[in-house]
Design a protein that fits this description.
The chain has about 280 residues and is α/β, with parallel strands linked by helices. It folds into two domains: about 150 residues, Rossmann fold (3-Layer(aba) Sandwich), CATH 3.40.50; about 80 residues. It has eleven helices and six strands. Strand 4, helix 5 and strand 5 form a beta-alpha-beta unit. The longest helix has 16 residues. The chain starts with 19 loop residues before the first helix and ends in a 16-residue tail after the last helix.
Amino acid sequence: MEDFADDPNSYEEPTPAPPPNITQYLERLIGWGPEHASAVARAAAAVELARQRLSHLALFGPGDLVPIAMSIHRRSLGGERPFVVVDPRRLVDPCCGRSQARAMPTLAAAMDAAQGGTVCIRAVRIPRDWYTASGRLADPRDDVRLMVAYPPTRLGDLELARPSPIVIAPLAGRDIARLIDEYAEEARADLDMPAPVTADQRVWITEFCHDHNAVEVAVRRFIALSCTSGVCDAAYHLGMAPVSLSRWMRRRGLTVRAVTGLDPLPGAPGHNTDT
């Protein structure tokens, strides 16, 4: 895959400072503390370059990074702008239920649908029309940004990730309690719901959520379920279909009673795994 810039070794510096919530979010992905400050600053500059359409943005890390790409899109451009995933097998990307992200079969179709917003591609699934359509990414008439999600096995493609990739730190060894606190504070403000994340919910998240998106999704859904009258009401406030929330809960053995503390959560002390 080739870079879409005319001169991929020359980039203008972003003029405005990155939004504060982007920097805070990048600290969650990369790490807190002075030892990570330079990496966070480079990542924030890369996000700003992508926002201004001066470069594409590359993400490296385990799991499906499309939800993280969407979170960066939402925090840097706002939730009203389109986010479109290039995927010939889906019409709606299931990773991104929060905003009804669209999926299109080709890069050209995705760019048509993403004007003013972002197109995201997975490096393991390069669009079949990349070489014919990617030139549009440098055309000022097309107001589209590009994010590319790379799995860890593609770290050798760093030369494609200019000017600086965002390398997502694994959750192992991270301060999970702080991650939960930050995602919960953001969710409470976004949903306008005051519920805390309970001790049992924290145990469940620590045990069963193994990437950043899983932590954020669980925190948001636990808070919504704790502050509403049931699955339908919670799904409405989360901006997703009730059936999607029900399936997410069912696959994890969750019930409303367990989430709200009336029954033990799976994996929590007192839970009977035989029932």
